Amino acid sequence: MVLDKDSRQPIPGAAVFVRELQKGTVTDARGHYRIDQLCQGSYTLVSRILGYKEIAQPVTLVHTAEENVLLTEDDIHLQDVTVTAQRAAALNSQTVSQLEGKALDQTRGQSLGDALRNVTGVTTLQTGSSIAKPVIHGMHSNRVLILNNGIRQEGQQWGSEHAPEIDPFIANRLTVIKGAAGVRFGSDAIGGVILVEPAPLPTTQTVHGELNLVGFSNGRQGVVSLQTEGGFGNGFGWRVQSTLKRGGTSRTPTYFLDNTGMAEQNFSAALGYRKNRFRTDLYYSRFATKLGIFSGSHIGSLSDLQAVLENGKPFVQSGFSYTIGRPYQQITHDLLKWKTAWKPAAGGDLSLTLARQFDNRMEYDLHRPKNDSLAALNRPELRFRLTTYTGDLVFEHKPVAEKLTGSLGISGFYQFNIMNGRPLIPNFRTYNAGIFWIEKLKRNRWEYEAGLRYDYRHMQVFRYENRVLEKPVFVFRNFSGTVGATYSLTDQWAMRFNAGTSWRAPNVSELFSDGVHHGAAAYELGDRTLRPEMAYNLSLNSEYSSPNVQAEVGFFYNTIRDYLYLKPQSEPVLTIRGAFPSFKYTQTDALYAGLDASVSAVLLPKLRGTSKVSLLHVQDLVLDQPIVMTPPNRWENSLRYDVKTWGRLQDVFVGVGNVWVARQNRVPPKSDFLPPPPAYSLWNLTAGLTVPVSKKHTLDIGLTVTNLFNTVYRDYLNRFRYYADDPGRNASVRLKWTF
């Protein structure tokens, strides 16, 4: 037999041959091999397969002989491959897109939200120039679940300006699951799921890694990220990674955006062990950032606020600076994860994942405290300390008749929040428990699947009302379900259908917000009578892939009963801290329907064209009118010229692209402080190449220019569009040293 030296698992498909006779065979599904009609004598038996080190061992034949071969894994660095719309750890009938390889490298240095803009159907909700949250089919925040290295990210994600506390450099792949995925990942995943996935830990003793250097012209931002990894032998692997980022004031085409600098320091480390049927790994990460909030969004009086809305330019304009003054945010997020898995001898896979997260968010107001002591200056006006413990136990049973696969799991989390400062949201603690069951059946060209989940959530709130401590309790429970089918018409063409239900409980901000949310420059008011959302989802997707053409079109139709959203109020609110637009959490029934389509085709030798379109229709079914703050339609087109080799250079390419974003005409009458901004069109330029320095060392060089012609525009999904334009031209240079 041919076996993995560490796990002792059989290796099918390995080549085994006698070197002296050049006679051999290939191992079967159980790792067995047989070579007949050999004469007695001494020979050299050679075994090899991609991903393992070749081994040659002497064999002496007298009559017959059995010889087990133990192969050791080997790291083989192949050229990066970009794959989109591949199946992930979700239901196969759902639409899945992935960003990896060279495509992911071109986003290095950007935030998670900005990096995912390259995926069809994904946009961003922005707060100024430095904060971006991913939006999937018009949904964001608590309707989009983010899994950071397999752990559901838990921070203060209810805020529009609370970006995910994740360093994208930890990932070698970003996966977007579009549509409800609550059965596998739990409630809250009404809009979709984002998976931030690091590469598997190595097990060989070879040390390798990469160094990334990125520079951006707008904001004069610099980024450096270093990752090294290797193994200790005997099944142990390790990885260490760190990122530093520093940027100053960003600039629109005509003026600077005062106080929009940022600083970031991130670190992560992982240690893993794999032996036979047992594997375990330990992971820790820290994300720490300081973000300046555009000072022009904090206005002292109602008359000044009205003047800014009418003039379209901020009162405060300054030059470039790296200084981060008030107002600003300072956030640290710590994640500690332990996962262990075991493959029983009878088959299947049992895994247990435990994690602890601590999110410490401090928000500083524009106004300096009256007491100028150092302690007073360092005391935030708002501080949220959120601690979350999560646990997941999942069993994947072995295939039944090689056709039926499935998994059964239980999950839970315990969470508590401690808040200090002026009132906005109260303290709370939450318990959540869920159980799910998913089965998949494959028959010929059809693949069927079904899943069911039950979740229970208990939340207790601690708040003072007229100086009396109240402790109201909220209990939410419901089922989620899904059925789907995939049909492969040919090897290149597949159709997918999925129908399901999902739900989401109102969070503490929607129930109890009451005050100025300074980061969003808004006064927000909650409603403790709000009910859970219940979503009913349908999707139909078709994919075609050949060497010259890749195409995909997907339709979705989702209704959400008791949909929750922030509704702009007719009048702004004047407080002792200034004048702010006012918003209230409101409930209705909503329809989300739309289409995503993309096609990429070879137009000429070495020239490829790509076109993507995203259409979205959102409607308030109760009032029979549109809903505010939903993404307008988008159309993206690009051309790319590739040369695999040019002298000593490899993977040389140059590309040009255009993004056209329509005006959002579907808004309720008199529902916002300003009408939606006009449509805009932005041109972008990309180029890159790889320099092979040695057999094991390469240097990748990339250039990107966004908003090439320095167009003046405002994006409808930018919460600060009331006060200023969006950033202008931004050129970036990326260097990646692989060793």
TrEMBL record:
> Mind listing the UniProt keywords for this protein, alphabetically?
Cell outer membrane, Membrane, Receptor, Signal, TonB box, Transmembrane, Transmembrane beta strand, Transport
The record's section on SUPFAM superfamilies has: Carboxypeptidase regulatory domain-like, Porins
Coiled-coil annotated residue ranges, if any: none
Q: What is its main location?
A: membrane
Identify its membrane topology class: Multi-pass membrane protein
| Cellular localization per UniProt | Cell outer membrane
UniProt-listed PROSITE patterns = TONB_DEPENDENT_REC_3
Q: Which domain of life is it from?
A: Bacteria
Q: Which Gene3D superfamilies does this one have? A: Carboxypeptidase-like, regulatory domain, TonB-dependent receptor, beta-barrel domain, TonB-dependent receptor, plug domain
InterPro entries per UniProt: Beta-barrel_TonB, Beta-barrel_TonB_sf, CarboxyPept-like_regulatory, Plug_dom, Plug_dom_sf, TonB-dep_rcpt-like
Q: Where is the TonB-dependent receptor-like beta-barrel domain?
A: 226-708
* UniProt domain TonB-dependent receptor plug: residue ranges: 93-193
Q: Which family does it belong to?
A: Belongs to the TonB-dependent receptor family.
How is this protein named in the record? TonB-dependent receptor
